[in-house]
Amino acid sequence: MEPAGFALARERSAGGPSRKGALLDRRPGAATRFFTHPVTLRIVSAAALCLAWQWAGTVPISPAFPTFTETMAALWAMLADGSLFAAFAITLQPLLIGLVVSAILGVAVGVAMGLDERAEWFASPIFIVAQAAPLAALIPLIVFAYGIGLTSKTLVVCIMAMPVIVLNSFAAVRHTPVSLTEMGRSFLAPRRKVISRIILPAASPVIFAGLRLGCASGFIGAILAELLITPTGVGDIITYSRSIADYPSMYAAILSIIVFSVVFIEAIEQAEVILFRPEKRASP
């Protein structure tokens, strides 16, 4: 009969029950998985921010800085009387129009620049300068040319959002792996199929990243337009609350547009996962 020590050593070297048990013992427990889950970490991060906000308002670090509870009370009051919903209905008009125009034109121009060097030579200097320049300085010129209506506010959203979308779309198409395009050509695929079935799917993650960044810049442009052109919508609440020293309402309006922009950008990311990222959709 073989000694027990030799049998145990042979079982461990063969990956038997002892090794399997050790691997099972190393798996994190339910509590560890819960506290390290991304959703839990986000909730903890948001709670820490709220506590820090409450502490900073209680100290206070400034007479114009309200506590978190005062801000939430003002936010609830604006939700209850419907003033915040009415303000968002006004703010979203130029924002959505500008974002739709920027997304369609920006992706189209960026893809054209990535596919054709002549289009790149013609358009890339314009958008590189537009991304680097302080575009908020152009708002007085836009007002002088188009007035203080919906057109000027939509243009502000477009000039803030489009450069980011164009340049990210251009970089996504230009950096498509050469091996993929060569594979398509080796199978005698026509150019339009190489673009639609190889280049665009491979470039979609970076294009959607540009859309998210462009939407964030578009939200900035919408609020700048309402603050600098004419106070309407959420910008009107911010301006009026500041003028009468109603700081909780002012911070509540700012918080509401920040939360809305974060939710909007997260929705774009989820659309990307559903449409173009099956590997992430299948992951737990």
From TrEMBL:
<comment type="similarity">
    <text>Belongs to the binding-protein-dependent transport system permease family.</text>
</comment>
<keyword id="KW-0472">Membrane</keyword>
<feature type="domain" description="ABC transmembrane type-1">
    <location>
        <begin position="88"/>
        <end position="268"/>
    </location>
</feature>
<dbReference type="InterPro" id="IPR000515">
    <property type="entry name" value="MetI-like"/>
</dbReference>
<feature type="transmembrane region" description="Helical">
    <location>
        <begin position="250"/>
        <end position="268"/>
    </location>
</feature>
<keyword id="KW-1133">Transmembrane helix</keyword>
<dbReference type="Pfam" id="PF00528">
    <property type="entry name" value="BPD_transp_1"/>
</dbReference>
<feature type="transmembrane region" description="Helical">
    <location>
        <begin position="43"/>
        <end position="61"/>
    </location>
</feature>
<feature type="transmembrane region" description="Helical">
    <location>
        <begin position="154"/>
        <end position="173"/>
    </location>
</feature>
<dbReference type="InterPro" id="IPR035906">
    <property type="entry name" value="MetI-like_sf"/>
</dbReference>
<feature type="transmembrane region" description="Helical">
    <location>
        <begin position="127"/>
        <end position="148"/>
    </location>
</feature>
<feature type="transmembrane region" description="Helical">
    <location>
        <begin position="194"/>
        <end position="213"/>
    </location>
</feature>
<dbReference type="GO" id="GO:0055085">
    <property type="term" value="P:transmembrane transport"/>
</dbReference>
<keyword id="KW-0813">Transport</keyword>
<keyword id="KW-1003">Cell membrane</keyword>
<feature type="transmembrane region" description="Helical">
    <location>
        <begin position="96"/>
        <end position="115"/>
    </location>
</feature>
<feature type="transmembrane region" description="Helical">
    <location>
        <begin position="73"/>
        <end position="90"/>
    </location>
</feature>
<dbReference type="GO" id="GO:0005886">
    <property type="term" value="C:plasma membrane"/>
</dbReference>
<feature type="region of interest" description="Disordered">
    <location>
        <begin position="1"/>
        <end position="22"/>
    </location>
</feature>
<keyword id="KW-0812">Transmembrane</keyword>
<protein>
    <submittedName>
        <fullName>ABC transporter permease</fullName>
    </submittedName>
</protein>
<feature type="transmembrane region" description="Helical">
    <location>
        <begin position="219"/>
        <end position="238"/>
    </location>
</feature>
